[in-house]
């Protein structure tokens, strides 16, 4: 989730907790820091593969956030000595776990069991940037700030909002999943699985990913008047074992196989051998807003590789980073 939403959860939490911490100094800014602190890993990244492996890793896990809450509580006690250590640790841990929740509800997901497991969990309750979600939270914060007599109650409602909205989206997504499956059945289209997740400007737009044999079908549902296209976008599913095989030459490919949820591939055959462009449907959309935004731009998390006729990597690129074995211009020709 975006930093504004994380910080607003901390601000809301600080306003809600103020009644229970009358002796605490600088409680609200400390709570904002506690709600943001799991993103501290962004300062320790070293290249795209490191970011794929470790962003939303241990610092956004149950274990890592507990260590961060303990550390922050210890530092906070230097500022507010009358505040009980266990009590403030519990508050900071709750707010850090709220951060984990807000990351968990996006399709990007997070490694909640790190360092004991690197499995990514995702609940598909909100798009990575959700104006309805965030602006409503900010409006509640403003109301709590202005209405001092009802500040505590409004802030508690605000904290509930951070959980109620994504849960409502999950329920809506489950309903839409059945609706879309019935559409496919009515048209006689064979499929293995239908997955619906919030897209940009949800709850209006919803991304639909259909697994259909060797392909994925990508579509958008519009709750404000669904103008169904003649056919969804059809792409070829990428073979993760092929990516892992390429990972024996360049480790990023094996990492990409682990990271992606719905990887797909486009293949061409230049004279030198073969060229593959890998993407993940988590970061591709037929939503008109996203289509407009990415017009003429490179989609995020795109991995491109050119192989010679023996299957050896000639050159590769990932989000603008290009290997040194060949000129980047050769790769995009």
Defining key terms:
333 residues, alpha+beta, disordered C terminus
- Report the order of strands and helices: HHHHHHHEEEEHHEEHEEEH
Detail the poorly predicted runs: 320-333
Helical stretch tally: 11
Report the principal-axis shape.
globular
Spatial arrangement of strands, main beta sheet: 1-2-3-4-5-6-7-8-9
Gyration radius from CA atoms, angstroms: 23 Å
Give the CA-CA distance, first to last residue.
36 Å
Overall average residue pLDDT: 91
Helix content: 40-55%
Number of strands: 9
Task: Tell me what portion of residues adopts beta-strand conformation.
Answer: 15-25%
User: How would a textbook summarize the main sheet?
Assistant: 9 strands, antiparallel
Supply the number of structural domains.
Answer: 3
| Class from helix and strand fractions | alpha+beta
Textual characterization of the structure:
By secondary structure, this protein is an alpha+beta fold. The protein has three domains: 3-123, no CATH class; 169-235; 238-332, no CATH class. 45% of the residues lie in helices and 17% in strands. It is built from eleven helices and nine strands. It has helices spanning 3-17, 27-36, 48-54, 62-79, 85-104, 131-146, 151-187, 240-246, 251-259, 288-293, 328-332, and strands at 193-198, 205-212, 215-222, 233-237, 263-268, 273-280, 303-308, 313-318, 321-322. The protein has a nine-stranded antiparallel β-sheet with strand order 1-2-3-4-5-6-7-8-9. A hairpin with a 2-residue loop joins strand 8 and strand 9 (321-322). Helix 4 (62-79) packs across helix 5. Residues 320-333 have low confidence and may be disordered.
């Amino acid at each position: 989730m975006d930093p504004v939403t994380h910080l607003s959860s901390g601000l809301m939490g600080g306003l809600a907790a103020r009644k229970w911490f009358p002796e605490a100094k600088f409680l609200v800014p400390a709570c904002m820091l506690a709600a943001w602190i799991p993103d501290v890993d962004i300062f320790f990244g070293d290249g795209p593969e490191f970011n794929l492996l470790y962003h939303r890793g241990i610092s956004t896990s149950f274990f890592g956030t507990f260590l961060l809450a303990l550390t922050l509580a210890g530092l906070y006690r230097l500022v507010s000595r009358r505040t009980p250590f266990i009590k403030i640790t519990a508050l900071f841990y709750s707010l850090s776990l709220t951060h984990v929740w807000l990351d968990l509800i996006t399709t990007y997901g997070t490694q909640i069991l790190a360092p004991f497991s690197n499995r990514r969990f995702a609940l598909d309750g909100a798009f990575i940037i959700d104006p309805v979600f965030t602006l409503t939270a900010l409006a509640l914060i403003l109301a709590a700030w202005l209405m001092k007599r009802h500040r505590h109650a409004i802030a508690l409602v605000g904290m509930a909002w951070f959980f109620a909205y994504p849960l409502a989206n999950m329920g809506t997504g489950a309903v839409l999943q059945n609706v879309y499956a019935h559409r496919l059945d009515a048209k006689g289209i064979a499929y293995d699985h239908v997955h619906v997740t919030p897209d940009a400007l949800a709850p209006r737009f919803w991304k639909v990913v259909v697994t259909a044999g060797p392909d994925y079908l990508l579509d958008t549902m519009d709750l404000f008047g669904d103008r169904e296209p003649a056919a969804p976008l059809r792409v070829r599913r990428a073979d993760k074992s092929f990516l892992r095989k390429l990972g024996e030459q360049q480790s990023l490919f094996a990492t990409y196989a682990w990271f992606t949820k719905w990887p797909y591939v486009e293949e061409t055959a230049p004279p030198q051998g073969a060229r593959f462009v890998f993407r993940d449907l988590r970061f591709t959309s037929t939503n008109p807003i996203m289509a407009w935004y990415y017009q003429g731009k490179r989609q995020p998390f795109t991995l491109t590789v050119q192989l010679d006729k023996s299957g050896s990597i000639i050159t590769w690129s990932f989000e603008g980073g290009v290997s040194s074995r060949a000129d980047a211009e050769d790769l995009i020709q």
